[in-house]
Automatic annotation (TrEMBL):
Species of provenance: Pseudoluteimonas lycopersici
Protein's UniProt name: Uncharacterized protein
Domain of life: Bacteria
């Protein structure tokens, strides 16, 4: 199963979403509320994430991160089992001086 992390930013809050491609060619997204949303294909899941103004974490460069108000080294996708992930899907960025 292939996994991708996506993020959106709201001020100093990072909102994570995890996209998983299933073997059957379908996909599911774990959203920031802890819901698992099914999609007919990985492309439809990606389109829904982009419509909601998410960007792929793996595709970010330093300039993209700066536009969103953080540095690449400040962020890592959440880790843990499903229950732990649900608690970590929202992250506060440190305030800059």
């Amino acid at each position: 199963m292939r996994e991708e992390w996506w993020l959106a930013t709201l001020g100093r809050t990072v909102v994570w979403a995890r996209l998983r491609e299933r073997e059957a060619g379908t996909a599911e997204v774990l959203d920031s509320d802890g819901n698992t949303l099914p999609y007919e294909s990985p492309d439809s899941a990606r389109a829904a994430l982009m419509d909601a103004e998410y960007v792929a974490f793996d595709g970010l460069d330093a300039e993209d991160a700066a536009e969103r108000g953080f540095e690449l080294g400040e962020l890592q996708p959440p880790a843990g089992d499903e229950a732990t992930l649900r608690e970590r899907m929202l992250q506060q960025l440190p305030h800059r001086h």
